[in-house]
Amino acid sequence: MAYDPDNIFARILRGEIPNDTVAENEHALAFRDIRPQAPVHVLVIPRGAYVSYDDFAANASDAEIAGFHRLVAQVARSEGLMLAEGSAGFRAITNAGEHGVQEVPHFHLHLLGGRPLGRMLAQA
Protein backbone atom coordinates (compact mmCIF):
# COMPACT_ATOMS: atom_id res chain seq x y z
CA MET A 1 0.00 0.00 0.00
CA ALA A 2 1.56 3.28 -1.10
CA TYR A 3 1.04 6.56 0.72
CA ASP A 4 -1.68 8.64 -0.93
CA PRO A 5 -1.17 12.36 -0.14
CA ASP A 6 -4.87 12.93 -0.80
CA ASN A 7 -6.11 10.41 1.80
CA ILE A 8 -8.69 11.70 4.28
CA PHE A 9 -6.20 12.00 7.16
CA ALA A 10 -3.72 13.97 5.06
CA ARG A 11 -6.57 16.26 4.10
CA ILE A 12 -7.56 16.66 7.77
CA LEU A 13 -3.95 17.55 8.62
CA ARG A 14 -3.96 20.20 5.87
CA GLY A 15 -7.20 21.68 7.25
CA GLU A 16 -9.23 20.74 4.18
CA ILE A 17 -11.66 18.57 6.16
CA PRO A 18 -12.92 19.53 9.64
CA ASN A 19 -12.48 17.23 12.61
CA ASP A 20 -13.41 17.11 16.29
CA THR A 21 -9.93 17.61 17.74
CA VAL A 22 -9.30 16.09 21.16
CA ALA A 23 -5.60 16.99 21.48
CA GLU A 24 -2.55 17.71 19.38
CA ASN A 25 1.15 18.36 19.55
CA GLU A 26 3.82 19.14 16.98
CA HIS A 27 4.04 15.49 15.89
CA ALA A 28 0.48 14.14 16.09
CA LEU A 29 -3.23 14.94 16.05
CA ALA A 30 -6.02 13.19 17.98
CA PHE A 31 -9.67 13.51 16.99
CA ARG A 32 -12.97 11.72 17.49
CA ASP A 33 -13.90 9.00 15.03
CA ILE A 34 -16.91 9.96 12.89
CA ARG A 35 -18.28 6.39 13.27
CA PRO A 36 -17.50 5.58 16.90
CA GLN A 37 -17.45 1.92 17.88
CA ALA A 38 -17.38 2.64 21.63
CA PRO A 39 -18.28 5.53 23.96
CA VAL A 40 -14.69 6.71 23.59
CA HIS A 41 -13.26 6.30 20.07
CA VAL A 42 -10.41 8.61 19.25
CA LEU A 43 -8.01 8.37 16.32
CA VAL A 44 -4.40 9.44 16.79
CA ILE A 45 -2.39 10.15 13.63
CA PRO A 46 1.16 11.33 13.08
CA ARG A 47 1.63 14.56 11.15
CA GLY A 48 4.18 12.82 8.92
CA ALA A 49 3.33 10.76 5.81
CA TYR A 50 3.54 7.19 7.13
CA VAL A 51 1.42 4.40 5.68
CA SER A 52 1.37 1.96 8.60
CA TYR A 53 2.76 1.27 12.05
CA ASP A 54 5.75 -0.61 10.68
CA ASP A 55 6.52 2.28 8.30
CA PHE A 56 6.23 4.76 11.18
CA ALA A 57 8.34 2.67 13.58
CA ALA A 58 11.07 2.16 10.96
CA ASN A 59 11.20 5.64 9.46
CA ALA A 60 9.91 8.27 11.89
CA SER A 61 12.37 10.26 13.97
CA ASP A 62 12.74 9.54 17.67
CA ALA A 63 10.99 12.84 18.38
CA GLU A 64 8.03 11.89 16.15
CA ILE A 65 7.71 8.48 17.79
CA ALA A 66 7.89 9.92 21.30
CA GLY A 67 5.49 12.76 20.45
CA PHE A 68 2.97 10.34 18.96
CA HIS A 69 3.01 8.01 21.96
CA ARG A 70 2.92 10.90 24.45
CA LEU A 71 -0.21 12.17 22.70
CA VAL A 72 -1.81 8.71 22.97
CA ALA A 73 -1.15 8.80 26.72
CA GLN A 74 -2.48 12.36 27.00
CA VAL A 75 -5.70 11.35 25.25
CA ALA A 76 -6.07 8.23 27.40
CA ARG A 77 -5.80 10.45 30.46
CA SER A 78 -8.16 13.17 29.22
CA GLU A 79 -10.76 10.60 28.13
CA GLY A 80 -10.68 8.76 31.47
CA LEU A 81 -9.02 5.61 30.13
CA MET A 82 -5.81 5.50 32.23
CA LEU A 83 -5.62 2.30 34.27
CA ALA A 84 -3.53 4.11 36.89
CA GLU A 85 -6.43 6.51 37.40
CA GLY A 86 -9.10 3.84 37.91
CA SER A 87 -10.22 3.02 34.38
CA ALA A 88 -11.47 -0.49 33.68
CA GLY A 89 -9.37 -0.54 30.50
CA PHE A 90 -9.21 0.35 26.85
CA ARG A 91 -8.04 -0.97 23.52
CA ALA A 92 -5.44 0.53 21.16
CA ILE A 93 -5.68 -0.80 17.61
CA THR A 94 -3.77 -0.10 14.45
CA ASN A 95 -4.62 -1.87 11.20
CA ALA A 96 -2.03 -2.50 8.49
CA GLY A 97 -2.52 -3.62 4.92
CA GLU A 98 -5.10 -5.87 3.33
CA HIS A 99 -5.11 -8.59 6.00
CA GLY A 100 -5.30 -5.95 8.73
CA VAL A 101 -8.26 -4.35 6.92
CA GLN A 102 -6.57 -0.95 6.74
CA GLU A 103 -8.94 1.48 5.05
CA VAL A 104 -6.88 4.69 5.01
CA PRO A 105 -3.23 4.61 3.85
CA HIS A 106 -2.06 6.87 6.69
CA PHE A 107 -0.88 5.30 9.96
CA HIS A 108 -3.50 5.77 12.67
CA LEU A 109 -4.23 4.33 16.07
CA HIS A 110 -7.76 3.77 17.33
CA LEU A 111 -8.13 4.35 21.08
CA LEU A 112 -11.38 2.78 22.27
CA GLY A 113 -12.95 2.47 25.71
CA GLY A 114 -15.83 3.33 27.97
CA ARG A 115 -17.46 -0.12 27.93
CA PRO A 116 -16.46 -3.80 27.74
CA LEU A 117 -15.21 -4.34 24.19
CA GLY A 118 -15.41 -8.10 23.92
CA ARG A 119 -12.86 -10.38 22.32
CA MET A 120 -10.39 -8.95 19.86
CA LEU A 121 -10.97 -11.76 17.35
CA ALA A 122 -13.43 -14.60 17.21
CA GLN A 123 -11.98 -17.86 18.43
CA ALA A 124 -11.13 -20.25 15.64
Report on the architecture of this protein.
The chain is α+β, with helices and mostly antiparallel strands and 124 residues long. The protein has one domain (8-113): HIT family, subunit A (2-Layer Sandwich), CATH 3.30.428. The protein has three helices and five strands. The protein has helices spanning 8-13, 53-59, 62-78; strands spanning 21-24, 28-32, 40-46, 90-93, 109-113. The protein has a five-stranded antiparallel sheet with strand order 1-2-3-5-4, with helices on one face. The longest helix has 17 residues, at 62-78. It starts with 7 loop residues before the first helix and ends in an 11-residue tail after the last strand.
Across the major sheet, the strand order is: 1-2-3-5-4
% residues in beta strands? 15-25%
CATH topology: HIT family, subunit A
Give the ordered list of helices and strands: HEEEHHEE
Text of the CATH class: Alpha Beta
Major sheet attributes = 5 strands, antiparallel
User: Could you give the count of β-strands?
Assistant: 5
- Supply the CATH architecture: 2-Layer Sandwich
Rg on CA atoms, Å: 14 Å
Helix content: 10-25%
CATH superfamily: HIT-like
Straight-line distance between termini = 28 Å
Structural class: alpha+beta
Q: Helix segment count?
A: 3
Average pLDDT metric: 95
Pfam families: HIT (PF01230)
Domain HIT: 8-122
Keywords: Hydrolase
Protein name: Diadenosine tetraphosphate (Ap4A) hydrolase
